[in-house]
């Protein structure tokens, strides 16, 4: 006999979710603390005292005392079990009605297709088709297979890297070349704590301005790191400008000395040295300006990841485009992915991409040999059937405004 319960203990919920095949960070109990502008509840279904379904639900207050609910990347359960799916949503409706809920937006972490970018065959998984049918049988309305990132709350397409032996050998030549360039330029990667949140937030601000998008602020990043603690990973790439400047001065001095002793008739060698002199003078001038502006050490790229279950999610990444010659994103992302694998995680999710698979994000993330995970997408579950259509119109208008 199934039994629907509310206020599932956080520890029990996390233990169930983290071990489940559909485990996802957004269903961790702590995620509700990140989204603290929503109310929150954890509900679940027991079968003979064993938890078989659980959902961390975000609850938004609406005008006139109504609410809407959102289950990001959940509920967590076996979607092949039709009876369980139907029971969960029947029980959910009864409880949600008491909360004056108009509808529940459901975004299960069910993979519809899984493929590499160069795969010709991209067949939908049979299990995903069954899950969609069972959700529809339970009264959920599928929003369809959207391909734009802004069509759904969470992107439907993600680029995710699976752990493998000798990961760097899986990367394309251009990625290896750019990683080598970054190392040659002596870019350093530092694993940081909350003390570097301000520097990371600055890089995110520069990224916002460059891409003309709105992201998050320093306090949000701090909150993420404080809530997830040792399960949050902040990787920052930096340049030791003073060291680099001193090395250029040393090479410049040596070049001048070589020119002084170079015979006049050694035209080819003199030409090479004179070209080198011009190049080093240009580097010396640029580095001096950067040293005066930024100080001895400057952070130029960073990623913020949070780990849960068997997956590390790279939630945010930013860079200073003024230092793009260092190829910092390549080395930073490589180090981030490898650090997640070293911590024992099977997947490192690089985040959303456009469903057309031809945007700038896809092009960059393709450098890291990702598996493309196409999720089934969102469903709407009507609770107040009389007001459902009106509430959907209002929700879409509000989303468009934001």
TrEMBL record:
<dbReference type="GO" id="GO:0009252">
    <property type="term" value="P:peptidoglycan biosynthetic process"/>
</dbReference>
<dbReference type="InterPro" id="IPR016181">
    <property type="entry name" value="Acyl_CoA_acyltransferase"/>
</dbReference>
<dbReference type="Pfam" id="PF02388">
    <property type="entry name" value="FemAB"/>
</dbReference>
<dbReference type="InterPro" id="IPR003447">
    <property type="entry name" value="FEMABX"/>
</dbReference>
<dbReference type="GO" id="GO:0008360">
    <property type="term" value="P:regulation of cell shape"/>
</dbReference>
<keyword id="KW-0133">Cell shape</keyword>
<keyword id="KW-0573">Peptidoglycan synthesis</keyword>
<keyword id="KW-0808">Transferase</keyword>
<keyword id="KW-0961">Cell wall biogenesis/degradation</keyword>
<keyword id="KW-0012">Acyltransferase</keyword>
<dbReference type="GO" id="GO:0016755">
    <property type="term" value="F:aminoacyltransferase activity"/>
</dbReference>
<comment type="similarity">
    <text>Belongs to the FemABX family.</text>
</comment>
<dbReference type="InterPro" id="IPR050644">
    <property type="entry name" value="PG_Glycine_Bridge_Synth"/>
</dbReference>
<dbReference type="GO" id="GO:0071555">
    <property type="term" value="P:cell wall organization"/>
</dbReference>
<protein>
    <submittedName>
        <fullName>Aminoacyltransferase</fullName>
    </submittedName>
</protein>
């Amino acid at each position: 006999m199934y039994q629907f319960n509310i206020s599932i203990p956080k520890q029990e919920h996390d233990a169930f979710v983290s071990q489940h095949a559909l485990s996802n960070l957004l269903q961790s109990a702590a995620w509700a603390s990140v989204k603290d502008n929503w109310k929150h509840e954890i509900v679940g279904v027991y079968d003979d005292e064993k938890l078989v379904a659980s959902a961390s639900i975000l609850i938004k207050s609406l005008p006139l005392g109504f609410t809407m609910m959102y289950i990001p990347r959940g509920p967590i359960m076996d979607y092949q079990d039709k009876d369980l799916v139907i029971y969960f949503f029947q029980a959910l409706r009864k409880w949600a009605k008491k909360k004056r809920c108009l509808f529940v937006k459901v975004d299960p972490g069910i993979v519809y297709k899984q493929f590499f970018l160069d795969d010709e065959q991209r067949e939908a998984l049979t299990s995903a088709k069954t899950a969609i049918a069972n959700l529809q049988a339970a009264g959920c309305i599928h929003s369809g297979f959207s391909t734009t990132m802004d069509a759904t709350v969470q992107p439907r397409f993600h680029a995710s890297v699976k752990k493998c032996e000798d990961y760097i050998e899986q990367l394309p030549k251009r990625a290896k070349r750019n990683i080598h360039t970054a190392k040659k330029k002596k870019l350093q990667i530092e694993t940081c704590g909350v003390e570097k949140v301000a520097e990371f937030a600055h890089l995110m601000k520069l990224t916002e301005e460059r891409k003309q998008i709105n992201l998050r602020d320093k306090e949000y990043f701090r909150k993420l790191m404080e809530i997830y603690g040792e399960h949050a990973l902040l990787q920052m790439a930096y340049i030791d400008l003073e060291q680099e400047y001193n090395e250029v001065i040393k090479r410049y001095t040596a070049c001048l000395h070589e020119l002084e002793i170079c015979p006049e008739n050694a035209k080819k060698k003199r030409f090479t040295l004179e070209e080198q002199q011009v190049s080093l003078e240009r580097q010396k001038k640029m580095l001096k300006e950067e040293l005066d502006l930024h100080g001895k050490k400057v952070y130029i790229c960073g990623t913020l990841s949070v780990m849960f279950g068997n997956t590390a999610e790279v939630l945010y990444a930013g860079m200073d485009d003024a230092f793009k010659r260092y190829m910092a994103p390549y080395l930073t992302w490589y180090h981030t992915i490898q650090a997640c694998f070293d911590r024992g995680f099977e997947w490192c999710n690089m985040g959303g991409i456009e469903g057309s698979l031809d945007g700038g994000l896809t092009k960059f993330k393709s450098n890291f040999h990702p598996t493309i995970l196409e999720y089934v997408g969102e469903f709407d579950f009507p609770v107040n059937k009389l007001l459902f259509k009106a509430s959907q119109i209002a929700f879409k208008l509000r989303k468009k405004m934001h």
